[in-house]
# Entry
Amino acid sequence: MDGAGDIREAVFQAHGLTKVYRMGEVEIHALRGVDLALYAGELLVMLGASGSGKSTLLNIMGGLDAATAGELRYLDQDLSRASDRELTRFRRDHVGFVFQFYNMIPSLTARENVAIVTEIARNPMRPEEALELVGLADRMDHFPSQLSGGEQQRVAIARAVAKRPAVLMCDEPTGALDSKTGVRVLQVIEHINEELGTTTVVITHNEVIGQMADRVIRLKDGRVDEEHRNDQRADPADLNW
Amino acid sequence: MAVIPTLHRKLIRDLAGMKGQIAAIAVVIAAGVMTLILSVTSLDSIRLSKERFYADYQFADLFATLTRAPDTLAARLRGVEGINLVETRVVAPVRLEVPDYADPVRGHVLSIPDGRQPLLNRLYLAAGSLPESGRPDQVVVSQPFAEAHGLDLGDELRVIIRGRYERLRISGVALSPEFVYQVAPTDLLPDYERYAVMWMNRRALGNAFGMDGAFNSVVASVQAGADQRDVIDRIDRLLAPYGGIGAHDREDVMSHRMLIEEIGQLEVMSIVLPAIFMGVSAFLLSVLMGRIVTTQRQQIAVIKAFGYSDGDLAGHYALLTGMIVAVGVALGLVFGAWAGDALAALYAEYFRFPETITRMQGRVVALAVLVSAGAAGLGTFRAVYSAVRLPPAEAMRPPAPAEFRQGWFDRSLAGRWLAQTTRMILRNLSRHPVKASLTVAGIALSGALLLLGHYQFGAVRHLVELQYRDVMKMDVHVTFVEPTSARVLSEIRALPGVHHVEGYRNVPVRLANGHLSERTAISGLPSQPQLRGLIDSEFRSVSLPPDGLYLTRYLAEELGLGLGDRVEVEVLEGQRRQLELALAGVIDEPLGLSGYMQVDALNALVREGPAVSGAWLLIDSARRDELFDRLWEASRVAGIGLISEAEDGLREYMDDTVLVMMAILLTLAGSITFALVYNNARIAFAERSRELATLRVLGFSRGQVGWVLAGEIALLTLLAIPLGWLLGTGFAWLLSLAFQMDMLRIPFHITHQSYAFAAAGVIVASTLSLVLIVRRLVTLDMVSALKNIE
# Structure
């Protein structure tokens, strides 16, 4: 499945990833054997309807969840056999998450919401620096209740990148925002990808967002259904939905 | 089958989902109900039993002791203005021998009119009958004494009255309103094996005791509306020529006083403890209901959108509270009834009534239900009110992110260095200052209860230590029938097994300072007593000056006397001299009230040669039985007290009652802390599971996330401990004030161990509930917590 002629290093490599949930009496096959590679510095958009398994895949790659079967490697680390302690370590050191509902800590200011990560990271940037990156230098001492949704999401991005993660994982980052604010958030994500060279995965059900990616993967019923590479990444400012 | 309305199904499922929290609150309510029922029922029982016994058996109002007066004086006593009934009688101190029992037994025999019940202090016959008229060999014994020795009707006792053996046969077993609390005059606690109360025909006892045609004790009842003080004065004037040492009312009857003091303690307990528990449960319920309502905002909106009225919803949540209260009250009733029986049994051991009337009154149950429902209603009202007031559309929306502000600690220098997790803890606490302070107050209260319990135990133990290590250093205490020449001491010293003897003189007096007066005795001691310690407030030994009066500190304070003040002394025996003495110093002893002087000075005061009222002995315990046999034969010996037995009795009593009370207190205090901490942590966990899951996602370990939860509790607990110490010290001080009585004074002496115990108890209960909560962190589902908005 490797992109033709791509000589860049594969950061993540997944083979035959399978995930089966039990919901009460019903077995749900969320992933049915996914093969996927993720290359350093690329911006990957994963498309799919709800229930296609894209969030499950992201959660497993981010070390939030474990696969039922299959293999997952991050560089030379075998994540599919990692303990809970190792997964925590992995998340702390290498992964930045951005969620649909921001997941701010309401009792901490914007700066402190970032600091909570930089305090435990190995080689973080200063919280102020991260917030400048997302254009919130003037809102640093505001509490989440004093920030708009878009601003909260940008704090979340700052929090995710402040640790200089190997990969930034964004689960429906614009899902709770109007299109104008959403575009602003996407610009920030692109900016991070460009400036810091952070490998970035964005999952969404919004087809339009695919245009800003290096590569687009479409999931359907727990399998990779389609993959294509954009010749030219679109500027998020030109996106419209 | 009746269909359960769906709203009620929801109620049942909600309840099922909060089992742990509900159980914790129910236990606190139960504890409140239990203490309420326990104290009110015991109080009611003792009061009722006492009232009925006193009324049915004609407990006298006034009591007087004299040396000897002819029977003809009885008619003049009856004529005293204000007196209703008079009974003259003979009271004789005796020694007795009980078959198969080696230790000396002391006792008193009281006369009753030949063959019939006295007019006052009538006997309740538990078995048998009164001595038949004209029979000199029959005796009625008190029930606890008979039980302690397994005595039956017809059994024979050898009683030594005035040095002469009498063989007496038991005709009946009885209780008297005068001896509900049956204790030897010098003791504090009943010793049913070694102290007996008996009743004989007047003529028989008169003959045996040398009181033929005379009496040495008077009991009387007072006409309604008469002033007891005036009546006492008239009686005293009448009896003075006959060696009367002053009449007194019921207050100076040991049994009655103990009853009154017990009732007073129960009255305090029936208000304070239930109030604490009900307050805590109201607080817990309000927090829990507030939480339920917040999480169910959207459900409430949907239910209202369906067309349920505010009243339906209010009823729904009121019912939820009601169910919790019902569980708590039911538990409290069961435990209260059970513990009530246990406590009644404990009381029955010390207070002997013909029938102990216990009634689980509907009144008390209704009161318990009312009080707990009131407390719960108070706590729940706000939450329910805000729930039903919410317009459906608003309730459908998720609540806005909680608002926070920077606190004082952010601006402080140290604040800059706080870790973000610690900052979260501090902000969460400062956002709910009322809730946080109430929680601290609640935990502090339980710490205070623990401290109080331990203090009580430690103080009583300290008192016993003090009394038997520093004050009563003798092995045996011998009292004589009347003051005796000091030569008797060398006779005793010559007896087998006696190592050391010290004599003392006891003179009954009335001390007065202005309108304040107190009946007591002055003890005359050797200048350097070896066997009877006098101590000051630092527990140091005090030696008496050649002249000048020392008083127990409490007595000096009661009389309003300072050092050097003059005190009027009325000697109540012999020539009944009236004189004035200066207060030379005070003695800090935990038990009893007395005055102290050097024996020579005292004898000079009463214009007598060297005389002694009793002696203290150090003995060789191996030769004890031999010594006692010889002492028994001495005609002047009225009683022999074994100090070590008294100490054992006191320690046994402590083990029985104080430990039980402490265990109860421990359980109650533990349940408060546990319920508070557990509920707090559960709610914090539920409210913030999303926040905690986010931290996990960001790479925090379980331990670090646990800290956010545990740190809050730990901080509250740490704040609560010093407050608990403060409160507990206050409680202990109040308790020691409440226990400043004539008979004993509990020293206000809190040890480091008590403080440590209170802190440890609180920490253990907190830790336990934290462990239960932190276990939940393991099951925290990061993925689903992130998906749901709330």
